[in-house]
Amino acid sequence: MGRYVARRLLQMIPVFIGTTLLIFLMVHVLPGDPIKALWGDKAADPAQVAVLRHKFGLDLPLWQQYTNYMADLFQGKFGETFGGRQVSDLMAESFPVTIRLALVAFVIEVVLGITLGVFAGLKAGKAVDTAVLIFTLLVISVPVFVLGYIFQTVFATELGWVTPSVQDSEDFTQLILPGAVLGSLSLAYVARLTRTTISENVRSDYMRTALAKGLPRRRIVGVHLLRNSLIPVVTFLGTDIGALMGGAIVTEGIFNVQGIGQQLYRAVSQGEGTTTVGIVTVLVIVFLFTSLIVDLLYAVLDPRIRYA
Amino acid sequence: MRGAKSAKWVTGAIVVAMAATACGGDKSDSGSGLTDGKVDPNGTLVVQTSEPQNPLQPANAKESQGHRVLKSLFSGLVTYEPGTGKIKNINAESVTSSDAKHWTVKLKPGWKFHNGEPVTAKSYVDSWNWSANTKNNQINSQWFSDIEGYDDVHPAEGDPKSDKMSGLKVVSDTEFTIALKSKVSYFNYKLGYSVWYPLPDAFFKNPKEYGQKPVGNGPYKFESWDHNDKIVVKRFDGYQGPDKAKNGGITFKNYTTADAAYNDLRSNNLDWIEQIPDTSLTNYKQDLGDRAITNEYSAIQDVAFAFYTDQWKSIDPKVLTGLSMAIDRDTITKTTLHGSRVPATSFVAKGVIGYQANSCGEACTFNPEKAKQYIKDGGGVPGNKISIQYNADQPHKTWVDAVCNSIRKSTGIECVGDSKPNFKADLDQREKKQVKSMYRSGWVLDYPVNANFLRDLYGSKADGNQGAYENKEFDELAAKADQANTLDETVKLYQEAEKTLAKKLPVIPLWYYATNAGQSTKVYGKMPYGQDGDPILTDVQVKQK
């Protein structure tokens, strides 16, 4: 087990270097000079442009920019934005907001998704099952931003239950609506995945045995059935945490949540390489760690899975 | 849903007030008359902004967001009268010159910064010296380039030789002099911009930290800055200026999308939106009733020719005039742009000193017959095809398509939009002189004098002349205008210079800008606007709850 974890952690290093390099190159390929764009419509001041380019190391060859960036990164320095703020400060402000939003979305998708899935799976072919299937199909087929605007119009503008946009990004209750929108797509997938495995496993031998032993129904479904059926669901949920954080860009825009999605969008559109690479790097780390945790969870769910 | 509801509001303010009570539960549109109720002098406002790009230092705001906050915290020497563009003293007792080259500034005594430091001549001189220095990376540092000794603090290459401009001299606590490199008869007009604000001694100890917690001399005092969320300022009761705040304070709230802001405006969580989102342009007037704001300001939209291309290199100016005449500005501004623009008839925007209507003359009037004739007489458009380059990250596509359609319909010349993914890419093409045919161009005033719209854009060597336009007659007149001793002379000579542009068009003037904005039910009366297209926040009054 320990060796397995160590190996996995070591594997992260090349992945980490590869992704940062790729993003670095991609940002560089974006057309236009981000420094000159600071002047907008008016003519840029060549002397000041030169000073700023030098300050941000943009006058160096690309490989040197990258190695400098990595060297700083290993000392824990994420660099500066064009506006002179530390990228690490920026992330410290925005990541908690997005994590909170992702958490709300995650809880909604896990609780609702699994519950719907279990009900549908146990009643496969019945009316409940059909209703869940239709509902999830609907959610999957509607793009997130459309859903966002519908929710906003219905719950905020028409019913007046909430304010149309989040007034305080620190407040959990205000994040419920955007969280529901953000989690809706995954909710549908979780429900469908759960439904499929439950309806398969419910006919398996061990279920019949458990039933024959006279175990209470709660225990059969809750422990025997659910534990075996959740493996694919957990895989999905694990990778979904990363997706939720990245996917927050659209939702954050609609509900004016000042999270990492907004920062990333701003950084990309302004061509701020350091900020973009910094944020994406952290997102990559989140992805890597969640997938590691998922792999480790397999062993808990199914003791037959063992790691050397 | 919105459409159905909107219909109720068409009949105007009185009906809105009555209907609001009739449909309770509809929180969003429950407006009442603009001047119902009493004014609360301590009421506060929430206005839209987005995160300022840079620390809040006077010379560091190129975008309107940072600029707007700075304007509330600082007061400069002069400001402009809305509508006429004339300057009016704020912190200055007088700004005078006898030869347009040597200027004397006298300050009103008794002014204080928010931290208690007195505002003196030194506060200005130190501020300008610091801001002009390349080492301090101020985006607007080029504004000081008229001053003698600017090249020492801001050399074209290498490190600054000095940290003081030789042209600035402190005479006494309330007086200083400015020596310019050459005559600029409208120099006092430039002084209304935010780069010229004074700075207290405390600033220079740690400019960076200060930029996060600015201390100004203006009508409002800095309270807090929650990055990416909001900036709060409170009225400064010790303020000495004539433009005292008529409200208790302002919260500048960060919105990343105009749609989110618009929704918040409709539910009164936001008191002023800077621009109605495109998606609501068709119905915002119904939604908001008399709370809808349409405000013309001094900015112009053009389509410029890239004269370095084979297409336009040796073109007969008649062809350019023909193309310009082929555009139906009236219809496009009314339909495609929902009345949010005003057809342009000259090269200088309205409200600017020296603005002369119709200086573009025949070229800016729609006449497809004559357009065809002119193009034919001039030998036609090489390749019979033109394109207009624009940046797709802003809503330009619709009007570019409309302009192209108009040209195609009137003259049969093929016209297409040439979209670049973002503004950076668009600028890049312009700068490298790789524009294929024509490009979108525009200008918002820096200061309300016609020279600002002409000198910086159409001189053969002007920085803003990206299309390689050359016009000897214009250059000569502009040079003469720059050498004039008085503002009147300069303005007049520039007016003459503007007339030469009509003969050989550098750009096709399309329309003047107007903002489509809106205010909440909490605002008393209509929000007053300045010439730069921004509301005059100190004059906004808030209703008592």
Explain the overall architecture:
The complex is a heterodimer of chains A (308) and B (545). Chain A contains 12 helices and no strands. Helix content of chain A is 76%, strand content 0%. Chain A has 2 domains: 2-73, no CATH class; 96-301, MetI-like (MetI-like fold, Orthogonal Bundle), CATH 1.10.3720. The N and C termini of chain A lie close together (6 Å). Chain A has 308 residues and is an all-alpha fold. Chain A is flat. The longest helix of chain A is centred in the last third of the chain and has 39 residues, at 217-255. In chain A, α1 (2-29) runs antiparallel to α12. Chain B is of the alpha+beta class and 545 residues long. Helices cover 29% and strands 21% of the residues of chain B. Chain B has helices spanning 2-6, 13-22, 64-73, 121-132, 150-153, 187-190, 201-205, 207-210, 258-266, 284-288, 310-313, 317-325, 329-334, 368-377, 397-411, 423-431, 450-458, 472-482, 487-503, and strands at 39-40, 44-49, 78-80, 87-89, 92-97, 102-107, 168-172, 175-179, 220-226, 230-235, 249-254, 272-273, 292-305, 341-343, 385-391, 414-420, 438-444, 507-519, 523-524, 541-543. In chain B, the strands form 5 sheets. In chain B, strands 12, 13, 14, 15, 16, 17 and 18 form a 7-stranded mixed sheet that branches. Chain B has a 4-stranded mixed sheet with strand order 2-11-10-9, with helices on one face. A 4-stranded antiparallel sheet of chain B has the order 5-6-8-7, with helices on one face. In chain B, β9 and β10 (230-235) form a beta hairpin. In chain B, α12 packs antiparallel against α14 and α18 (472-482) runs antiparallel to α19. The longest helix of chain B has 17 residues, at 487-503. Chain B starts with a helix and ends with a strand. The model of chain B is unreliable at 1-31 (pLDDT under 50). At the A-B interface, α2, α3, α5, α7 and α10 of A face α9, α16 and β17 of B.
